[in-house]
Amino acid sequence: MAGGGRRQTRGLRRAEVAERAGVSLDYYTRLEQGRRLRPSRQVVIALARALHLSDGERNYLLGLVGEAAVPVPMSRTTDASARRLLDQLDAVPAMVLNSRYDILAWNRMLDALVANLAELPEHERNTLRWLFTGPAAGIGPRDRARLGRRCVADLRGAGRYPDDPGVRQLVTELSRESGEFAELWERHDVGVHRTVTKRMVHPDVGALDLSCEVLAVPDSDQRVMVYTAAPGTGTDRALRGLWARVGERGGC
């Protein structure tokens, strides 16, 4: 750094963002200040890259200037790398989701935690439907509402609405059937669903304080969602007990 001084704040300076995006400092400053400018699609994508935005955040910016999202095919089958990771996660509940929150694959521990998913129609294997139109079994109302807000912001940030017919159909359905979803969707909040904690009550092992880790699959819209607990806690012991039952039955 010139002058040998230390940076007092984290992040990029305006000049650094402008340089990385290939635009002038004056143009970027006016854009940041909310002047009446309409950046081109190329400029928005370059700025998103310079700011290290996620695909969802980049696509949301494109939508704000009237540009179509950068298309990423909606997953219908499990990505091979996600499948390999899921296969390694025997002792903790885990599942693979696409950006529409469809459950594409899961392990036996997830069945032990929530339900026997194989018995559900494919249409119902969607965690947004569980939260807003289903029982959301075992989750308290406060946690369910908090998770709902995060998931709706994440769905909005995925950048697939209204271009993806599957997402459009899901949004229409949930807006019709859930006033809460409709209200949250109209807020236009955008976020990325990462680690979150929640409490649920299991019919066999009781209250569980779980950490929900969301792992993005590179070059895909898929995420691996894993439920864990702090070592040595009651929840950790309860999960070990569930795993022992799974082993005894050879499945769920």
What does this structure look like?
With 252 residues, the protein is of the alpha+beta class. The protein has eleven helices and five strands. Strands 2-1-5-4-3 form a five-stranded antiparallel β-sheet. A hairpin with a 3-residue loop joins strand 3 and strand 4. Helix 1 (14-21) crosses helix 2 (25-32) and helix 9 packs across helix 10 (179-186). The longest helix is centred in the middle third of the chain and has 17 residues, at 141-157. Residues 1-9 have low confidence and may be disordered.
Set out the fold topology.
Layout: H1 14-21, H2 25-32, H3 41-50, H4 55-64, H5 80-88, E1 94-97, E2 103-106, H6 108-113, H7 127-132, H8 141-157, H9 165-177, H10 179-186, E3 196-202, E4 206-216, E5 223-228, H11 234-249
Antiparallel strand pairs: 1-2, 1-5, 3-4, 4-5
Uncertain parts: 1-9
Question: How would you sum up the major sheet?
Answer: 5 strands, antiparallel
Number of strands: 5
Number of helices: 11
Q: Report the end-to-end length measured between terminal Cα atoms.
A: 59 Å
Binned strand content: 5-15%
Domain HTH cro/C1-type: 7-58
Organism: Streptomyces yunnanensis
InterPro entries: Cro/C1-type_HTH, Lambda_DNA-bd_dom_sf, MLTR_LBD
Protein name: Helix-turn-helix transcriptional regulator
Based on the model shown, name its key terms.
252 residues; alpha+beta; elongated; Helix-turn-helix transcriptional regulator; MLTR_LBD; Lambda_DNA-bd_dom_sf; Cro/C1-type_HTH
